[in-house]
Amino acid sequence: MRVLVALGGNALLQRGDTPDADIQIANVQTAVKTLAQVAEKHELIITHGNGPQVGVLALESAGDPNLTRPYPFDTLGAETQGMIGYWMLQALQNALPGRQVLSIITQTLVSAVDPAFENPTKFVGQVYDQAEAQKLAKENGWTVKPDGQYWRRVVPSPKPQRVVETRLIRKLVRDGVTVVCAGGGGVPVIRDENGRLSGVEAVIDKDLTGSMLAEALECDAFLILTDVPRIMRDFGTAQQSEISHTTPHELRSIDFPAGSMGPKVEAICRFVETTGDMAAVGKLDEAMDILDGTAGTIVTPNATWPLESTL
Ligand SMILES: Nc1ncnc2c1ncn2[C@@H]1O[C@H](COP(=O)(O)OP(=O)(O)O)[C@@H](O)[C@H]1O
Ligand SMILES: NC(=O)OP(=O)(O)O
Hints:
Layout: E1 2-7, H1 9-12, H2 21-41, E2 43-48, H3 51-62, H4 73-95, E3 101-103, E4 107-109, E5 122-128, H5 130-140, E6 143-147, E7 150-155, E8 162-163, H6 166-174, E9 178-180, E10 187-191, E11 197-199, H7 206-216, E12 221-226, E13 232-233, E14 241-242, E15 245-246, H8 248-251, H9 261-275, E16 278-283, H10 287-291, E17 297-299, H11 307-310
Parallel strand pairs: 1-2, 1-12, 2-9, 3-9, 4-10, 12-16, 15-17
Antiparallel strand pairs: 4-8, 5-7, 6-7, 10-11, 13-14, 16-17
Helix pairs in contact: 2-4, 3-4, 7-9
Bound molecules: adenosine-5'-diphosphate (ADP) and phosphoric acid mono(formamide)ester.
């Protein structure tokens, strides 16, 4: 089976944690324990978030007195792919000796006229209280928005259209390589009328890119691993209940928050609707159980979908 796993930013850095490298490396090592189990049994492609990390690098660049202007977000996105990709590469190599693993810088095409450029929605960097966020926004020209009980900087998040390096990734996977790619949703780029690529200032949603890439690579399963065991009905209320098996149709009838579960549900629904294969949301350390159909929220084209025979 061919599986694409999208790792949540939470996997690497919990909200409120100090973004020190050693803390994130330890989190990567924890994530890789479960990913290594998947890689031992299946062809595996891994993508990861970069919201917290790209914010750290943006602050660093903005504070460098030697620069005349801060690095743009496409460059910062590539930096996060290098940094997180390196941590994952090393952890995977240590967990899977003898296995071929590669982390690659990956670009994702977006539309230059995507309306998202006028309406920033992607949370980056650390959380602030409202007053501090608004002060920083005024001082630095940021847009800030509420993220749960906190506030965070937001940047445009255009829709991914295609991962530029898709063919190469397919070749690597067919050759038995475990590939880490499209980190942070891929570096956002546009292509001009002469076919030339250039970066744009944005951060793409890694779940939407993951869904698109899983489809393009003809994956049999698309997993989003995060910090909750299942998608919940009535999340955050006394009536909340876990959904163990559902369909895109049912999920689309429920409202999910734009900044967290919403894009995951959209990404999952798109994959299942387009491919007829299974997708799931679940906890980081339960990847194998999710693939066995005993953990996570499993999403299939219809409620009578024969889980065992397909997995
Ligand atoms: N209906 C829901 N079911 C489960 N979790 C939900 C729901 N709605 C919102 N959430 C929140 O979504 C979070 C996961 O999204 P997010 O923080 O963006 O993940 P990641 O950084 O791992 O990609 C959970 O920690 C939970 O607080
Ligand atoms: N790029 C992206 O979607 O990052 P997070 O998962 O960290 O929000």
